[in-house]
TrEMBL record, chain A:
Pfam family name, one: ABC_tran
Keywords (A to Z) from UniProt: ATP-binding, Cell membrane, Hydrolase, Membrane, Nucleotide-binding, Translocase, Transport
PANTHER family given in the database record: AMINO ACID IMPORT ATP-BINDING PROTEIN (PTHR43166), PHOSPHONATES IMPORT ATP-BINDING PROTEIN PHNC (PTHR43166:SF6)
Protein name: Phosphonate ABC transporter ATP-binding protein
InterPro entries listed in its UniProt record: AAA+_ATPase, ABC_transporter-like_ATP-bd, ABC_transporter-like_CS, ABC_transpr_PhnC, MetN_ABC_transporter-like, P-loop_NTPase
SUPFAM superfamilies, per the entry: P-loop containing nucleoside triphosphate hydrolases
GO molecular function annotations of the record: ABC-type phosphonate transporter activity; ATP binding; ATP hydrolysis activity
CDD domains: ABC_PhnC_transporter
TrEMBL record, chain B:
Segments crossing the lipid bilayer: 28-46, 107-131, 152-176, 266-283
Name of the protein this chain belongs to: Phosphonate ABC transporter, permease protein PhnE
Gene label: phnE
GO molecular function: ABC-type phosphonate transporter activity
Residue ranges constituting the ABC transmembrane type-1 domain according to the UniProt record: 101-284
Amino acid sequence: MLQLEGLTRRFGANTAVDGVSLSVPAGQMVGVIGRSGAGKSTLLRMVNRLTEPSSGRVIHDGTEVTALRGQELRDWRTDCAMIFQQFNLVQRLDVLTNVLVGRLNHRRGFGATLGTLFKRFSAAERAMALSALARFDLAEQALQRADTLSGGQQQRVAIARALMQQPKLILADEPIASLDPRNAQVVMEALRDVNRRDGITVLCNLHHLETARHYCDRIVAMQKGRVMFDGTPAALTAARIRDIYGVSEDEFDTAPEMTAPALTPAREAALPA
Amino acid sequence: MSATTIEPALLARGEAAFQAQRRQRRRATLTGLAILALCLWAAGWISEFYPSSLAAGLPRVGEYFYKLLPSLRWDALFSGADTEGSIAFWFYRLDDWAWLLLQTSQMAALATLAGAAVALLLAFPAARNIAPTRTINVLMRRGLEAMRTVPEIVYALIFVWAFGVGPLAGILAIFLHTAGALGKLFSEVVENADLRPWEGLRASGANWAQACRYAILPQVAPNLISYGLLRFEINVRGASVIGFVGAGGIGQELNLVIASNYYEEISAIVVLIILTVFAIDYVSEKLRHRVIGAAEGH
């Protein structure tokens, strides 16, 4: 069970996320929707602690995530894998190594950690990585450089890397915003499959309502940093959409999307609220 | 909207704005040039760069070079070392000098390798974008600065005093300066790296060193190798001069013959140094392209 309590993040005068409280039971697939600058990205990044909250708490199974430091924080990050809009693979490394880096934090002790710096992975780990790749139809590409792959393939490599972490939850920050419709579908199916078959909780930022309705058990709608709706896809009617966003569902989906990868707090802060 | 609907007033305003901007840019350029000229004049005056001294000294440069010329004779050019006027006579100590040159280049190689290794380790904490804490970052940057602002020759003087005359002092001096200079360059390369992989690694629970190794190093490696080899070329030249203060290599010999006014030996050694540097430049250039090509490959 993941609990967010009054989670807030301010960038200067701008409040990106404003007192968000949510509770997500294990195994749920949650779609977080909202337009550009609604605070979805910042919310997810705070759960992984890539962005520090200004106030509020994140609690997972009784552990206060927002208080973790050092090795405990790294362990938490391993438990909640992150998928990015821009895939965030190491372009110059081969696909297999990109997947194997998901194991880095599973080594304990100075000697073992030192070993990881020289690409020392065990045969068992390589087998694990290959089967993760095979699951997403990428076993043939294992020794290719990541930058030779298409966007859809790269995102599936990123999901395979996430699985190598053996996480309890996966945070997907706009996983399909940089993909064409066909690849978007493949990637969403992969996330759905990971959620169903492995029982991993998935929190997924999306800006297409239809995608969220189709794949998620629950939808959280955000506007200006606040949660405006939290419920089943069926409960999010066209009338509710108009209430929250002041536009029809069609307009919501076709609104020009500012594709900001939100790399740094500075860039996020630059976005209009 | 078609072009015919644009109003003449709008065009006139656009043209006026364009002209105003161009006038302003021209003024800025002219002001800049004037300031530059003033600075150059002041620099020349302060550093006593007088055209009259230059004119008086130039002929003497030619005179020195004339003195350096070996007295070669056509008929004896390819005779043995015993015949005056032959090339062999000019380079009569070629075996000693070749050994000293080899020693010089090995000093440079050792110092470059060790310096690059230290620079590689220090460059990551010295890079602003990924430094673990601000304090460590500032300490590293100041440390690298201190290492590279002291000239090699000053280090060499200190080490000759401490370790005695010989190549060890030269190697240490070049090593320290190289670590500082390369550390700065390397950290700048790291600062230009794409941070998306870094976020990917950190978000998966990798520690700082692991993220450096997997997210940054593959991106920057070709650039670092290129800078390292370039530094090797610079260090070969540096190692030839550093011997002047007794820090080993061909420089020590060169200093001796210059001080003793053995003009033909000076030119012989200078020719040998130039040939060596040419050869190393050539080989290192080839090597750099091949290594970078290979590093790009995976």
